[in-house]
Each structure stands twice: as structure tokens, then as C-alpha cells.
Write a structure and sequence with these properties.
Radius of gyration of chain B: 20 Å
Mean pLDDT of chain A: 84
Low-confidence stretches of chain B: none
CATH superfamily of the largest domain in chain B: Cytochrome c-like domain
Order of helices and strands of chain B: HHHHHEEHHHHEEEEHHE
Helix content of chain A: over 70%
Number of helices of chain B: 11
Structural class of chain B: mainly alpha
Oligomer: heterodimer
Distance between the termini of chain B: 66 Å
Largest interface: A-B, 19 and 25 residues
Number of strands of chain A: 0
Distance between the termini of chain A: 60 Å
Strand content of chain A: under 5%
Structural class of chain A: mainly alpha
Largest sheet of chain A: none
Radius of gyration of chain A: 21 Å
CATH architecture of the largest domain in chain B: Orthogonal Bundle
CATH class of the largest domain in chain B: Mainly Alpha
Strand order of the largest sheet of chain B: 6-5-7
Number of strands of chain B: 7
Chain lengths: 126, 279
């Protein structure tokens, strides 16, 4: 009796974890553009270019989400455009630094919007 | 007896919860005005129509000198000429704005029950033009600013009277959206409109004092000495949003329109005194 109850609990926990897996995976996944680039300027142009395009796309996606939420910061788009320009000139280190900045800004803007969607109510003059 | 007391207490509790949770526009406005009355007890209500010059006495003296030869006069004259012009169908702006002889600025922005949208004065000018086969004027262009300056001038002395029809949830939603915008922090500096113009009103920001939110919309459009040109209220919003390092919205966007709706409602009862002159 006790054994079957334990089995039931184990199965229940396991099933719950399986169901929760996509949610946990999404919440724990962080865009790569949020972590600083660890490459060096000696990396081959091809490798840097691939990484750049990937990180640029991530940062641009975050920026667009912030814009959709009406929360985009002033310089995020400019940082992304400048990063493209630097990448075009082969200045990978600067290009990745700019992307990292833009990515942080867009992510912070989204967090700000989410927090403010409730927090504003506590500031109303009453 | 005890039952009656308990019932009374429950009623009072419900009333308090309702008042604090579901404060409507009139309650919001009363609280907004009371805040400034308590914050600046020496400033009479009517003075808030003068914006920062109600608070900053030194700047007020300079402003009064500027008002002796108003730099916005050219805009009023240009606006008067445009107002008189007839559209190809022989009609004019006065055919769209029925009460224009007595001034109309005080009633804008206005909720339109037919479309469910808030209509600013600038949009109403364009709607009038469209009705008579004319193209839109760009928001913020010289002609638009001149027309709105003339209409504000003709409305001077009228009390702002914005209505939020309580029986239309769309009007209340627009008002609430503007209110949310006003109190929400945004941008890299993480500041809301209220942070500067409610909490810090009267304080210094660099070498200037921050104006009170009460009375903000009474005097627009304004002549800005800084730019050497006229400026609409939405262009001013744009400047503030940029100042907190957030990306500005389009002029006449839903964000600015609902913000104007909320903010102008807060200034109900103050006199229109536009166009104005600002540094």
C-alpha cells in the first residue's frame, strides 16, 4: 500500500516536471546577446560574422518587443545600427560591445514595462 | 442593534474599498488639485494656468516682460488668415467648429462617441479639412500651429471643460490609458511624468524649476525661445520623453492623445490662456 502510494507520488512529480519543462526551459534561457562576447579580434572574420548575425538578430528581436510594449529606450536602435557599421568595418570587438549594450537596454526596457504595468497604480495621487 | 452596526460597518468598508480601488475621473481630479493646494498653499488655483511662472517668481518677471511684445503674435496673425480662407466648396473652418465665435479650445480633446476615439484640436482641424476635400496638415507644421494658436487665442478666458462620459467604457478606457502613461516610469532614466511634475514640482532640474502638472495644457501651443518657433503640446511631450531617454512616440499617437485627455481633464476649471511664451 505504502509502496504504491510512493510510486504514485513519484509518477505525479515526474509528470508535473514534464509538463513544466517548456516553461522552465523558457524562463531559464537567456539570449546570448546578454552575455559579453568572449571572442577576440583575431578570430576569423567568418566566425565573427556568424556570431554577429546571430546576436544582432537576438538583440533586434528584443528591441522590437520593447517597442511593441511602448517601452523602447532612446538609443537602442542607434546602438544596433552602429554595431552593424562597426561589423562592416571588421571592428568585431566594438561591434559586439555595442550589441551587448543594445541587448541589455532592450531587456531592461522590457523588464521595466512589465514592472510598470502594475507599479504605476501605487503612484496615483489620492 | 448590533446587527445594524455591523451592517453599517460593512457598508462603510465597502465604500472605502470602492473609493480607493475604483476612483473615477472626478475623484482623481479632486485629489490632483488638492495635492498642489497642499504642496503650494500660497498659489491660488487660477495661477496654475501660467505653468512654471506660477511657481518660479524670478522667471515670472522675465516672462511678463516678454509678454509685453508677445513672440507668438505672428502665429496668431497667420492663424487668423488661415481661419478666414475658404475651402473650394465655399465653406470654412467656422462651419466645422460651430461654437468658434465663443472659442472652442477649452473643449478639446473631446471624446467622440461615434468613433469611440479621443479627438484633439489638431485632429479636429484635419477632420474638418478632410470633410471639405482638403489634405491633412502635418502635425507640428507651421500652419497647424498657427491655426491652433489662433483658436487658443480666441478661447482665452474660457474655462477648460473636458468631459469623460461615465456611461461609455471607451471614454473611461482612454482616460485610464492616459493616466497609466502619466504615472508609468519609462526610459533609461526610469522617470514618469509624475516624478517630475507631481513629486518634484517646484524643484530644480539643472538651472530651471520643474512646473506643476496642474495647468500644463492651458497655454499650448507656445512660442519656445529655445527653438525660435511655436511648439505643440505633443511636441512638448516628445521632448520630455526624449529627456528621460525613452524613444518618443509619433505626434498625435494614441499614447500622447490619451495623455492629453487625462492631463487636460485634470486642469478642468482653469482658464485657457494660450498661446504662450516659454524659454
Amino acid at each position: 500500500m505504502s509502496l504504491s502510494r510512493n510510486k504514485f507520488i513519484v509518477r505525479f512529480v515526474f509528470s508535473a516536471l514534464m509538463v513544466m519543462q517548456p516553461v522552465l526551459a523558457v524562463s531559464s534561457e537567456e539570449p546570448e546577446c546578454l552575455s559579453p562576447w568572449s571572442g577576440s579580434s583575431d578570430d576569423s572574420s567568418e566566425t565573427s560574422s556568424q556570431y554577429f548575425e546571430q546576436r544582432f538578430a537576438e538583440a533586434e528581436q528584443l528591441r522590437q518587443l520593447a517597442a511593441k510594449a511602448g517601452a523602447e529606450w532612446l538609443k537602442t536602435e542607434e546602438l544596433l545600427l552602429n554595431s552593424k557599421e562597426q561589423a562592416g568595418n571588421g571592428n568585431w570587438s566594438t561591434a559586439f560591445q555595442l550589441i551587448h549594450k543594445a541587448c541589455k537596454q532592450a531587456d531592461s526596457a522590457l523588464q521595466q514595462a512589465e514592472y510598470e504595468s502594475k507599479a504605476w497604480k501605487h503612484r496615483v495621487v489620492d | 442593534m448590533i446587527k445594524a452596526i455591523i451592517t453599517g460597518l460593512i457598508f462603510l468598508f465597502t465604500l472605502v474599498v470602492y473609493q480607493t480601488t475604483f476612483a473615477g475621473p472626478p475623484e482623481d481630479r479632486r485629489a490632483f488639485v488638492a495635492y498642489y493646494e497642499s504642496r503650494f498653499p500660497d498659489i491660488p488655483f487660477a495661477e496654475y494656468a501660467n505653468g512654471i511662472y506660477a511657481i518660479d517668481r524670478d522667471a515670472r518677471d522675465q516672462w511678463l516682460e516678454i509678454e509685453e511684445f508677445p513672440p507668438y503674435e505672428f502665429a496668431i496673425e497667420q492663424g487668423a488668415d488661415l481661419w478666414q480662407e475658404k475651402f473650394p466648396d465655399g465653406k470654412g473652418y467656422s462651419d466645422c467648429f460651430k461654437d468658434s465665435a465663443n472659442g472652442v479650445r477649452q473643449a478639446y480633446p473631446k471624446f467622440d462617441p461615434q468613433t469611440g476615439e479621443v479627438i484633439t484640436l489638431e485632429r479636429a482641424i484635419n477632420l474638418c479639412r478632410n470633410e471639405h476635400g482638403q489634405k491633412n496638415l502635418e502635425f507640428g507644421n507651421e500652419q497647424m500651429l498657427a491655426l491652433s494658436a489662433f483658436m487658443a487665442f480666441e478661447s482665452r478666458g474660457n474655462s477648460i471643460n473636458i468631459e469623460v462620459p461615465g456611461d461609455d467604457p471607451r471614454a473611461l478606457a482612454a482616460y485610464e490609458q492616459g493616466k497609466q502613461f502619466y504615472y508609468s516610469k519609462r526610459g533609461q532614466l526610469n522617470l514618469s511624468c509624475a516624478d517630475c511634475h507631481v513629486v518634484s514640482a517646484g524643484q530644480y532640474v539643472r538651472a530651471d524649476h520643474l512646473s506643476a502638472g496642474l495647468g500644463h495644457p492651458t497655454h499650448f501651443p507656445v512660442y519656445r525661445s529655445k527653438f525660435g518657433s511655436m511648439l505643440s503640446l505633443h511636441q512638448r511631450f516628445e521632448g520630455c520623453i526624449r529627456d528621460v531617454r525613452a524613444k518618443p512616440f509619433e505626434l498625435q499617437s494614441k499614447e500622447y492623445t490619451t495623455l492629453e485627455y487625462f492631463l487636460t481633464y485634470m486642469s478642468n476649471g482653469l482658464e485657457v490662456n494660450g498661446p504662450g511664451a516659454r524659454k
